[in-house]
Specification:
The chain has helices spanning 2-30, 37-64, 68-77, 83-106. It is mainly alpha-helical. It has one domain. The two termini are 16 Å apart.
Length: 107
């Protein structure tokens, strides 16, 4: 399960960073400056990596056996700016604790 946690963690950081950049780009595009170039570049990248993030999140969710509500929180983490980093921190802690508990139970 550690591999799934690592994949999720990397994808969460990438998606979270791209989402922050996309938010800044949207402010620049619709704010006092008219700079749509940043949004044109970051938006497709975020969309692609968000889809990969969803696959990684599903894999982690399936392996942990968490309730569907936990998966919903993970999904929202890639949509709400800065929430990705908070959710990632909590999910990784919980998954590692669960992985340790499963390892002790099988020993």
């Amino acid at each position: 399960m550690e591999g799934a946690v690592t994949r999720y963690r990397i994808l969460a950081v990438v998606v979270g960073t791209l989402l922050v950049l996309l938010t800044i780009g949207m402010v620049l595009k619709y704010g006092p400056t008219d700079m749509p170039e940043m949004v044109a570049v970051v938006s497709p990248l975020h969309g692609f990596f968000y889809m990969v993030y969803l696959a990684g999140a599903y894999d982690l969710w399936r392996r942990t056996g968490w309730p569907l509500s936990r998966m919903a929180v993970i999904v929202l983490g890639g949509i709400v700016p800065l929430m990705t980093f908070v959710v990632e921190r909590r999910i990784v802690q919980d998954a590692r604790a669960l992985g340790g508990a499963k390892a002790e139970a099988s020993a």
